[in-house]
Design a protein that fits this description.
This protein has three helices and 13 strands; from the N terminus they run H-E-E-E-E-H-H-E-E-E-E-E-E-E-E-E. It has about 190 residues and is α+β, with helices and mostly antiparallel strands.
């Protein structure tokens, strides 16, 4: 056997081994990705439904807006209360998004341990918000509805729009902008 034949025999073995290793690696990566997708779908939580610790729920709204599953909370799990000027820096719902929510979802009061309202989306998904406490001058007052800030352009004076879910049309009322109110985020 000459040197060319030995080189050819050596190269064939190496090429087959390299191809085999590449195919094994691709198979394992594909298997793991599929497995992880399957686990995520069984748990009902997709990675893109979480953003900075906030879980968002798709209620099947025409605009595609997703609503936070709960009020904004701090790292210890406590509801965050803030005045309008701080809330407006976040992605709070607009008046149009609130109107879309109210007009396309079924809102129902629920009484378990704490009074709350369930908002059922047209696709069967839902969010549930507890009734709120509003803080003005560090004195809390209990609202008999979930309350959160709403972004509305062109507001003047010292009052801002806050959603009052379950009250009348749910589109809210104007309250003093320095009142500390829970925050609901959308995306």
């Amino acid at each position: 056997m000459n040197i060319k034949d030995k080189a050819k025999e050596y190269a064939e073995g190496k090429a087959i081994n390299a191809l085999t290793a590449a195919i094994e690696s691709a198979y394992a990566e594909g298997y793991n990705a599929g497995f992880n997708d399957g686990v995520a779908s069984k748990e009902g939580e997709k990675p893109d439904d979480l953003d900075d610790g906030v879980e968002y729920v798709d209620l099947g709204l025409p605009s595609g807006t997703k609503w936070a599953a709960d009020y904004l909370k701090d790292k210890d799990g406590n509801i965050v209360y803030m005045p309008y000027e701080k809330a407006i820096e976040m992605n709070i719902p607009t008046a149009q998004q609130l109107a879309e929510l109210v007009n396309n979802c079924h809102i129902k009061s629920t009484y378990e341990y704490i009074s709350s309202y369930t908002i059922n989306g047209i696709n069967g998904e839902f969010v549930c918000y507890n009734n709120s406490i509003l803080y003005e001058a560090e004195r809390g007052s209990y609202a008999q509805h979930p309350v959160f800030w709403v972004k509305l352009d062109g507001q003047e004076g010292i009052e801002r729009l806050a959603a009052y879910i379950g009250m009348g049309d749910g589109l809210g009322k104007y309250i003093f902008m320095g009142t500390k109110v829970p925050v609901i985020l959308v995306r």
